[in-house]
Specification:
767 residues; mainly alpha; five-stranded parallel beta sheet; 39 helices; elongated
């Protein structure tokens, strides 16, 4: 036994009495375990020792097993896994359409690896995938490090990779392949070439291929299959004819063998089905099925709408009460049924057989298919698999149920980092149906906003607005009108003044503090007021957002960060520092998964603003540049925090002697503000003051001596609305002492009013 390797591999199954290895599971949906096991050994499998040896001798980091359906790709890889299990473990993942989501795909890969390497630190690897915005590259980097440290080689098999369409999944697999340690191999079983750099891998000798011609059955293999399945010995001519007509296609040969089981004249059967008949496979399937009792035929056709199934699901869909017995009989008779787990609870049909059954059902009872999908959707929803429930509702063409399910669950999936899944639902629903359903447009607009897709938001906002006061919505929002106001009030894609109006409307519409959206409305309004330069009004809204105790961590983080910026503007640096650290603590909490979200930049910006106010310009630059990089990664996200970031970083660069860098940042800020001038007066004023400071005439010298540190602290607080007594309380000084410092500030700056002192302070860069 190699150290660090489980006594069983995925393809082995678990020895009797061995405890189950506890693995880390994805947070959403069910049906994970069935995907992490290769097919069980079947009596009719024909050994293919030549291909197995060829696979075992390959050292390429990528092995591509690429052929159309029914060519035995999965069976061959399972045979290899059984034959080589003693020398290396195999991590198996059976892919389906639900895996067309980067977070789910790599969760299953990592969980499969942990089955064969129980000591694998799967929790550490998975943590970046459980954030609101999953960082798959970070998870893959951790995975590569773990693979490099394993004591045994490993083969990772991704079966049915052709179901993966998401571009990011392919890019992430390429990322993994480029960094894969020599002890690991990735095997893709697929019906079509994946969009990977196959030419480059082939030229570098890093990819091996097994394709259709390699997988064709020879006459000897066809003869072995027919004898195993049908117990029939064909003569050489009949066998050659059958191999020729099926072109060595293993699935076609298997179907023929099933039909030969009880045929009175096998030689006549072969003769009748050779010679140009392109529908031979359909006929064979009908021959096999037609010999089953009527209730079995009905069971097969009605359950063919299911990708994976268990007896209770079959009973719910087919309207039976004996599905467990039927499945047992079908398995015993090798009726295209494949067990997906050791307990024989979950099954699937052979893909070709399922397609044939579904086509037959569509011809015979087309009206029943939507109802069957609806029943499957209801069952999955009741048993906690929302993704499957939505999929079947969409397949049923049940727009109302599909929209309701998506609207009820979209935010939970987005919050768990499964935005790609929600986008997949909406893509399946289609733009035309989204246009017809304001509730669907509500979901589409929010997903677009969270991804920074401004055009998507603009497209769907009018559809939401057309829904008016319809509500409450399944996700808890008060109405479609509230959704539109909250959306524009938080992101401000149309300008700062429309953002402020919408945010105010959202606050007016949601007055129930129990609502999870109450705090978000006030946080959005507080941010809009802050960007408009109304600091006291902003603070009141943000305080309400925090007092509500929102369970949405994102709302708390943004509220603390914006409150910190308000405190910086008013010169209350001690309080600003506490608020910024509260925002950062939420951002850095791995359990919340916010560190990679676009909104995390606001927390970093608050920390940077505090550091700049304290005169720690090098540290401030690090935080503010980090925040700006994050904003630029999400180009379409709200521009107002980006402008704030630019206006805070520019003077920091200037203080550090980087005049060209400061000028470039202000130029970028002016370009954005020129495009969105409505309501941006406060930010334009800040921009102009900074531009004068950078490019205007040299500053006038101070009338008196430089300000002391205490006087600078007083001057910072003079920017706000605090009274002399309140400034004294902030600085733990008496009111008379504050008055003395204020007179000294006026004298040194050559002014006579508080307003002029603040303006001169800005001109001299004292803030």
């Amino acid at each position: 036994m190699v150290r660090g390797m489980s006594e069983h591999s995925v393809v082995d199954g678990r020895p009797p009495g061995r405890p189950v290895v506890e693995i880390v599971r994805p947070h959403l949906d069910v049906l994970l375990q069935t995907k992490l096991q290769a097919p069980r050994v079947r009596r009719e499998w024909v050994p293919r020792p030549g291909l197995v040896r060829a696979l075992d001798d390959l050292e390429s980091k990528l092995i591509l097993v690429d052929a159309p359906a029914g060519y035995g790709k999965t069976t061959l890889l399972a045979q290899w896994g059984y034959a080589a299990a003693a020398s290396r473990p195999f991590a198996w993942i059976s892919l389906d359409r639900g895996d067309d989501d980067p977070a789910r795909l790599w969760q299953h890969v990592i969980c499969s690896l942990q089955r064969v390497f129980p000591d694998l630190r799967a929790g550490e690897i998975l943590r970046p995938l459980h954030r609101q915005v999953p960082n798959v590259e970070e998870a893959l980097a951790r995975l590569v490090n773990e693979l490099s440290s394993l004591a045994a080689p490993v083969v990772i098999i991704l079966d049915d990779y052709h179901v993966i369409k998401e571009r990011r999944c392919h890019e992430q697999l390429e990322f993994l392949l480029l960094r894969l340690p020599p002890s690991a191999q990735v095997v893709l079983s697929t019906r079509a070439d994946p969009p990977l750099p196959l030419g480059r891998l082939r030229a570098a000798g890093e990819m091996a291929e097994i394709r259709m011609l390699d997988l064709n059955f020879t006459s000897g293999e066809a003869d072995a299959l027919i004898q195993r399945v049908a117990s029939v010995q064909l003569d050489q001519q009949a066998l050659a004819d059958l191999v020729e007509r099926t072109e060595g296609w293993p699935a076609g040969l298997y179907l023929a063998a099933l039909s030969l089981r009880s045929h009175p004249a096998p030689q006549d059967f072969i003769r009748d089905f050779t010679g140009g008949n392109r529908y031979v496979v359909d006929y064979l399937a009908e021959e096999v099925v037609s010999r089953q009792p009527k209730h079995i035929r009905q069971f097969l056709s009605r359950t063919s709408v299911l990708g994976r199934f268990t007896a209770p699901l079959c009973d719910a869909v087919a309207g039976t009460s004996d599905a467990r017995d039927v499945l047992g009989a079908l398995e015993r008779e090798n009726m295209f049924l494949i067990a997906l787990d050791d307990n024989r609870e979950w099954f699937r049909y052979h893909h070709l057989f399922a397609q044939l059954q579904l086509a037959q059902l569509a011809r015979a009872e087309p009206g029943t298919i939507p109802a069957l999908h609806q029943q499957a959707s209801a069952w999955h929803l009741e048993h906690g698999s929302v993704d499957e429930a939505v999929g079947h509702a969409l397949a049923a063409g049940d727009e109302a149920s599909s929209v309701r399910l998506i609207a009820e669950h979209w935010y939970r999936y987005v919050d768990a980092g499964r935005t790609a899944t929600v986008r997949g639902w909406l893509h399946s629903l289609g733009d035309e149906r989204i246009k017809a359903h304001p509730l669907a447009a509500h979901c589409a607009a929010w997903v677009a906003a969270l991804r920074g897709d401004r055009e998507g938001v603009r497209r769907w906002l009018p559809v939401i607005a057309a829904g008016g006061n319809e509500g409450p919505l399944p996700d808890g929002m008060r109405s479609l009108r509230f959704s539109a106001a909250l959306l524009d009030g938080n992101f401000g894609f149309s300008g700062l003044e429309p953002m402020r109006r919408s945010a105010s409307e959202a606050v007016d519409l949601e007055t129930n503090p129990v609502s999870p959206w109450y705090a978000l409305a006030r946080a959005g309004y507080g941010a809009a007021l802050y960007f408009c330069g109304e600091f006291q009004a902003a603070a009141r809204q943000l305080e309400q957002a925090l007092l509500q105790g929102s369970s949405i961590a994102l709302v708390r983080m943004v509220s603390f960060a914006t409150m910190s910026l308000v405190a910086v503007e008013e010169g209350r640096l001690d309080q600003a520092e506490q608020l910024a650290h509260s925002a950062r603590d939420i951002m850095m909490d791995d359990a919340l998964g916010l560190s990679e979200s676009p909104q995390a930049s606001i927390a970093a910006m608050a920390v940077g603003a505090v550091l700049a106010g304290q005169g720690r310009f090098e540290d401030a630059r690090g935080e503010l540049e980090r925040a700006l990089r994050s904003r630029r990664q999400w180009f379409g996200i709200s521009q107002w925090p980006t402008i704030e970031n630019l206006l805070r970083l520019a003077p920091v660069r200037l203080e550090l002697g980087d005049l060209p860098g400061a000028i470039a940042l202000l130029g970028e800020a002016r370009e954005i503000l020129t495009s969105f001038p409505d309501g941006a007066g406060a930010q334009l004023n800040r921009l102009e003051r900074l531009e004068r400071r950078l490019a205007g005439p040299p500053r006038t010298r101070l009338v008196g001596a430089p300000l002391t540190e205490r006087e600078r602290a007083v001057l910072r607080l003079l920017r706000g609305t605090l009274s002399t007594r309140e400034i004294g309380q902030e600085l733990y000084l008496s009111g008379n002492t504050i008055k003395t410092h204020t007179r000294s500030i006026y004298r040194k700056l050559g002014v006579s009013t508080r307003h002029d002192a603040v303006e001169h302070g800005r001109e001299f860069g004292l803030f």
